[in-house]
């Protein structure tokens, strides 16, 4: 008779199923964003062929071209960085093996889907709530966390990417990287308590993934619709001739409407899927630290920024009593590999780190 699965195992399976569904949508999104990019390039070519276009209109669609090219470069960077990290970490045990399998699935269209999902910066200005670098790191963390990995690598493969992806990456990898710590707990009662905490975190993640799937479906529908409109617009533009000055007023007005269509379509490429973005960023933390009137304490916060940002994401929407906080602290403290990835020693990792993470969340969300 098969052993009954624990609450944590069931919650993790549910989370992994939600991740798999999200990834299927991200792959679909990648294919469709590739088509959208092509249609935007084609309509840009049609506009470029027209003479005497007013400067303000030309500048507008030239700016859109920069944003679009930047998105393409970000997607290429994600694909390249991911593969480089995978090669670098090959042969480092189970994580390396998992990553090795994942390389097979990481092609240009998947990278495009991931780039859109996590958002990119446009000409130096972040469109998403993450900076350009942080958005790329979040994307790498999602992939490196095993989210797009086939086979047995699973989310444990994310260990190989923690140094690359930073605190956001650690947060995305979540419970899957910490469950090994449970086996170090001797007390059955304590083990049950910490499993309940991790199960709660996994269930929270399921809710995020399910909301993200709804958002991904909406984005996919809009991209299909706008790709079709762009394709039809190209034929229309070709029928207007190549000189703006000789076009009718109605044709000129229609061209203006098509520039607006290009703008809205470009946003579909670069705006992130909010449901998958980290709930706590480095910028959030810096605001929290600067609000502290005690200079020594503020400096202490900043010294431990990486781990506090990670834990703030990990503990988002999680309420713990003092006993469970202490138990979580002890559990995290036992795992040397995860402490190393967070840039902190066992000796440094005091209970006040957990308290500070909750304080940081409270400052942003008023929890």
Task: Walk me through the structure.
By secondary structure, this protein is mainly α. It folds into 2 domains: 7-276, no CATH class; 282-365. The chain has 14 helices and 2 strands; from the N terminus they run H-H-H-H-E-E-H-H-H-H-H-H-H-H-H-H. The chain has a two-stranded antiparallel sheet with strand order 1-2.
What order do the SSEs take from the amino end to the carboxyl end, as H and E? Answer: HHHHEEHHHHHHHHHH
> Helix fraction?
over 70%
Class by helix and strand content?
A: mainly alpha
Strand order of the largest sheet: 1-2
Task: Tell me the count of domains.
Answer: 2
> What is the total tally of β strands?
2
Distance between the termini: 44 Å
Most strands sheet:
2 strands, antiparallel
Count, helices = 14
User: Could you name the ranges where pLDDT drops below 50 across 5 or more consecutive residues?
Assistant: 91-104, 121-129, 146-171
Shape: elongated
Average pLDDT figure: 80
Radius of gyration: 24 Å
Strand fraction equals under 5%
State the main characteristics:
mainly alpha, elongated, 367 residues, 2 domains, two-stranded antiparallel ribbon
Brief description of this entry?
This protein has two domains: 7-276, no CATH class; 282-365.
What's the topology here?
Elements: H1 7-48, H2 55-88, H3 94-102, H4 108-118, E1 121-122, E2 125-126, H5 132-147, H6 162-173, H7 188-238, H8 249-270, H9 282-291, H10 295-303, H11 305-314, H12 322-334, H13 336-341, H14 351-365
Antiparallel strand pairs: 1-2
Helix pairs in contact: 1-2, 1-4, 1-7, 1-8, 2-4, 2-5, 2-8, 4-5, 5-6, 6-11, 7-8, 7-12, 9-10, 11-14, 12-14
């Amino acid at each position: 008779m098969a052993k009954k699965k624990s609450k944590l195992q069931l919650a993790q399976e549910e989370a992994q199923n939600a991740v798999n569904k999200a990834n299927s949508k991200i792959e679909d999104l990648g294919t469709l964003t590739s088509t959208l990019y092509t249609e935007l390039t084609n309509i840009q070519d049609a506009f470029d062929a027209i003479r005497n276009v007013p400067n303000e209109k030309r500048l507008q669609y030239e700016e859109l071209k920069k944003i679009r090219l930047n998105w393409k470069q970000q997607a290429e960077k994600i694909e390249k960085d991911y593969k480089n990290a995978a090669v670098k970490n090959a042969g480092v045990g189970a994580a390396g093996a998992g990553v090795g399998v994942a390389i097979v699935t990481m092609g240009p269209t998947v990278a495009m889907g991931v780039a859109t999902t996590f958002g990119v910066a446009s000409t130096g200005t972040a469109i998403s709530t993450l900076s350009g670098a942080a958005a790329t790191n979040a994307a790498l963390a999602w992939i490196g966390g095993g989210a797009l990995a086939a086979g047995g690598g699973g989310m444990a493969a994310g260990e190989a990417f923690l140094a690359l992806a930073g605190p956001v990456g650690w947060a995305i990898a979540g419970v899957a990287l910490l469950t090994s710590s449970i086996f170090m707990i001797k007390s059955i009662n304590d083990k049950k308590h910490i499993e309940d905490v991790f199960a709660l975190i996994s269930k929270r993640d399921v809710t995020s993934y399910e909301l993200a799937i709804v958002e991904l479906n909406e984005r996919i529908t809009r991209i299909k619709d706008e790709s079709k409109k762009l394709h039809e617009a190209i034929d229309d533009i070709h029928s207007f001739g190549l000189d703006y000055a000789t076009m009718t007023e109605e044709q000129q007005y229609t061209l203006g409407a098509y520039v607006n269509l290009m703008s809205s379509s470009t946003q579909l490429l670069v705006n992130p899927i909010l449901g998958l973005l980290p709930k706590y960023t480095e910028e959030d933390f810096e605001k929290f630290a600067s609000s502290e009137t005690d200079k020594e304490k503020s400096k202490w916060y900043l010294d431990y920024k990486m781990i506090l940002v990670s834990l703030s994401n990990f503990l988002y929407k999680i309420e713990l009593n003092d006993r469970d906080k202490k138990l979580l602290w002890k559990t995290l403290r036992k795992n040397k590999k995860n402490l190393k990835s967070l840039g902190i020693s066992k000796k440094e990792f005091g209970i006040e780190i957990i308290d500070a993470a909750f304080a940081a969340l409270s400052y942003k969300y008023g929890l």
